[in-house]
Amino acid sequence: MKNALVLSLGLLVCSPLYADETQKVDSLINLKEVVVSANKIIVNKNSVPLTISVIGRDEIEASSESALLPVLSQRVPGLFVTQKGITGFGVSKDGAGTVNVRGVGQGNKVLMLFDGQPQWAGIFGHSLPDTYVASDVDRVEVIRGPGSLLYGSNAMGGVVNIITRKHHQEGRRTQARVMYGSYNTQKYMINNGYNSGRFSSFISLNHDRTDGHRDNAEFRITNGFAKLGYELSDQFKATGDISLAKYKNQNPGAITAPLLDNDMDILRGTTSLAVENNFGKISGAIRAFYNWGDHEINDGYAVGGNPRTFLFNSNDHNYGVLLYQSFHLLPGNSFTLGLDYKNWGGKAWNDSINGNREDIVNKKIDETAGYLIMQQELLNIFTLNAGVRYEYNSVFGGEWVPQAGVVARPFAGNTIRASLSKGFRSPNIREMYMYPIQNAKLKPESMFNYEVAVSQSFLNGRLFAELTGFYIDGKDMIERREIDNIPLNRNVGEFTNKGIEAELRFQVLNNLSIDANYSYLDTNKPLLAAPKNQFFAGITYAPGRFNFHLNTQSISGLYTNAEKNTDKESYTLLNARAAYRFGTRDKGANIFVKGENLTAARYEINQGFPMPKAIFMGGVEVTF
Q: Three-class SS of residue 217?
C-alpha cells in the first residue's frame, strides 16, 4: 500500500490519448469510429480484422447504472456476465461478475483493462467487477476473441478495455446523482471535470449500498477516482490516475445451504502513469501501473454449525511497465513495436482468534514480453494485419502468440473481415501453489480462434448490420482430476466452441432509435455461464425533454452447473426507463425512474442464488 501511494503521488503522469488525439491516418479510411485496443494506435474500426464492440459514454450514461458490467452484458453480442443480486458482485467461491465471451471466461480468461493496463487480483487471478464504475468510464472497447498478441496472458477469450474518463471541454462541469429503490438500495455519485489550458482533471466519488433481496445479503461500497493530465508540449502529454474501492459484502450462501457470517472486507486500488509522444508519423508511450488489494474474509458457517475460529487474509499486487512505439513510414503502412514487463503475486494466511497465524502462500511471478504488429493498406480496398508476440514467464517458460487477418471494403458501407488469432492464460498462484490440489508444473491454457464477419451500412449510415461466425479450438485447460487417487490441477481439458453473432442499429428518426443483438453458441461440453442463445433488443424515443427506453433480454440454454447437464436456465427480462430533463445537459436536472425484470421472472445465474423479482429505482441527476 505504501509503495502504491508513493507511486501515485510522486509520478502522476499519463494514460491513453485516444479521445483528443489528432493523429492523421490514411485518407482512404472514413473516420466515423475509431479504436485503440486493436493496434495500440488510433485506427478506424473497419480497418482491423478483429471483431470489436464499442460502448460509448452516452449509452453508459443513459443506463443510470453505477456498475459497468450490466451495461456490457446487454450491449455486446456474445458477452455474458454472472450476477446474483440487485447490486454488488463480491469475490471468493460464491462471487459473481465473471465475464464470458463466446463461452470462454471462467478462470479469468477474459482480460479486463484500465486504459490498456491489466486489472486482476494477483493471487487468485480473478477480475475485480466491483471496481468497474460506470461514472468513471469514457467508453469501452471489447475485443470479442483473443487479444493476447498485444495484451498477453489472460486475454485468451477476449479483452474488455475500459478507457477511463476525462473532461473534454474548457472550464468546469459537475454532476451529482442520487438514486433510491427496492430493498433499500441507495446509490450516490458526484464528479467534477475541469480543463484550463494544457491542464485537465476529472474526479469522482460513488457510494452504493443495499440490504439485498435475501437475508444476510448486504453490500456496501465506496469508490473514488481521480485523473490528472498535462500537455507538456505539442509532442508530449502526461496523465496519471488513481482509483480506490472499499467494500463490505455479505454472502448468504446457496438457498439449499445458507451461510452465516460469510463476510468480506476488501480494499482495492490501482494507479497508473505514463508519458505519450506524438510526432505525426511516429507515436508511442511508456506507461507504468500498480494494482493492489487487501482482503479479510470470514468463510462463514452453516446454520446450526459453529462459527469459524479464523479469518482468511491476503495481500496481492499486479504491477508493470508497458512500452510501445508505432511508425507510419510508408504510405498505407503502420507497425508497432512493444515491450511489456509485469509482476504479479502476493501472500495469503489465516489469522486465528487466539492470535496464531498460518501462512498459506507467499509467491510472485515475472512476465516479460515483446511483440510486433504490422498493418498494410492495399488498393484502397484491402487491409492486411499480422503480428507475433513472445512472452516469457518465470515459472512455465515461453509462449509464442501469432495473429493474422485481412479486411476487405469492396464497396461503400461494406466491410468483410477474416482472422486467425491465438489466446492463452497463465496458471494463477492459487492453481499452482495453494491448497492440496496445487500443481507447480502447470502450463498455460491456450486456444485458436477463427472468425469471419460481414458488416454493411445503409441509408447514409442510419442503419448498420453485422454478422460474425467463429470457431474456437481450446486445449490444456486446467481442471481438477484424480489420477491414482491423487487429486491435482492438471492440463487435461479440451473444448470447441462455435457460433454466430448478429448486431443491428437503426436510427429511425432523429429522436427514435432501435438496437438489437443476438448470439448463438454451440459447445462440445457443458460450460458454466455460457448461454446457448442470447438476445437483446432496445428502443429509445426522445421527444423534446422526455426520454423513454424499453428493452428486453432473453437467455436460454444457460448451464448453472456444468457437472449436471440437466441444470439449465432460460429466462426473459423486460426493463424500462423514463426520464425528463430540466435545462441543458451542461446545466440542469434530469429526473428518472426505471424498472428491471418488470414481469418478475424467476431465474438463477449462479446456482443456488435466485435473482430478485421486479426491481424499481428512481433518482435525480443535477449538472452545473
A: coil
Cβ neighbours of residue 291 closer than 8 Å, sequence gap 6 or more: 118, 119, 120, 122, 268, 269, 270, 317, 318, 319
Does position 381 have pLDDT exceeding 50, yes or no?
yes
CA angle, corner 190, sides to 185 and 195, nearest 5? 160
Give me the residue label for grid cell 455486446: 76
Question: Is 573 in contact with 584 (CB distance < 8 Å)?
Answer: no
- Exposure b/e, 363-391, CB count within 10 A at least 16 = b: bbbebbbebebbbebeeeeebbbbbbbeb
Q: Starting at the earlier edge strand, list the strands of the sheet with 52-55.
A: 52-55, 137-143, 158-164, 110-114, 117-118
CB 189 within 8 A of CB 205: yes
CA 564 to chain centre: 29
Amino acid letter for position 389 = R
Give the Cα separation of 60 and 72 in Å (integer): 9
pLDDT, mean of residues 489-501: 95
Residue 55's DSSP bridge partners are 140
How long a stretch of residues is the chain?
624
Would you say 225 and 181 are in contact if contact means Cβ atoms under 8 Å apart? no
With cell 477511463, the residue in question is 164
User: Cα separation of 234 and 265, whole Å?
Assistant: 45
3-state DSSP of 381-440: CEEEEEEEEEEEECCCEEEEEEEEEEEECCCCCEEEEEEEEEEEECCCHHHHHCCCCCCC
Q: What is the CATH number of the domain that holds 387?
A: 2.40.170.20
* CA–CA gap between residue 122 and residue 125 (Å, rounded): 6
- Contact predicate 312/348, CB 8 Å: yes
Residue 311 has pLDDT above 90, yes or no: yes
Burial 308-335 (b: 16+ CB within 10 A, else e): bebbbbbbbbbbbebbbbbbbeeebebb
Please tell me the least confidently modeled range out of 80-94, 439-453, 503-517, 577-591.
80-94
Angstrom CA distances, 613 to 256, 349, 570, 575, stand at 19, 39, 15, 12
Measured between alpha carbons, how far is 222 from 189 in angstroms, rounded to an integer? Answer: 10
For 509-512, which contacts have Cβ atoms below 8 Å and span 24 or more sequence positions? 511/541, 511/542, 511/543, 512/539, 512/540, 512/541, 512/542
Please report the pLDDT score of residue 565 as a whole number. Answer: 66
Residue 93 has pLDDT above 80, yes or no: no
262 vs 18, more confident: 262
Model confidence at 16: pLDDT above 80: no
Domain count, the chain: 1
3-state secondary structure of 337: strand
| Domain encompassing residue 42 | 2-623
Count of beta carbons in the 10 Å neighbourhood of residue 226: 19
State how far the Cα of 424 lies from the Cα of 434, in Å rounded to an integer: 22
Work out the average pLDDT over 45-56.
92
